[in-house]
Amino acid sequence: MATTILSPEDTAAATAALGTLIRGHRLRIGLTQRELADLSTISVRAIRDLEKGKAQRPRTDTLRLIADALRLGPRARTALEEAGRRGHRGGGGARYLSLERSAPPVPLHPLIERRAEAAVVAEELRSGTERLITVVGLSGVGKTRLALEAAARLHDAGLPVLWHTAPGAVADCLPADDDPLAAPTADCAAFLHGEGPAD
Known about the structure:
This protein is mainly α and 199 residues long.
């Protein structure tokens, strides 16, 4: 059996990813660290250390108790367990993770009569039950503005948001000035469109 030795940077990135997941799920359902500790029978300090990325080798039972307390669905539970395992052995892409949250673009137009739809889209994505939602409709009905509102709500909740506007699309928004992931997102989109090599 092969053992992977992690550099401190790889271990820190993997455990920070786990911490971000735990914190995101905790905030999504409105729990404090104390409340999560009470529901999971794990100490507040252990939860705080996991969320901050200080605990580098979480036990499988600890992650199971947290997942049970957060009432995670199958996909979210699997993602949490995988993030915990990456903390043990350093997942392949952990070193490429950016811990900065990129801001979604700034809309050029106000949201009109779509608050309920925006809340539903944001909650579906925030809950972890869906990874992809397609918004369809006629031109000019507000699909992009609805997606921008959902992205802003997810960003405000502390979740990462990647936004890519296809080349040649009508600009309905202004890109965020402080987006640390703009270049990697554009590179990924170009690769997926067959326009360049993957790095």
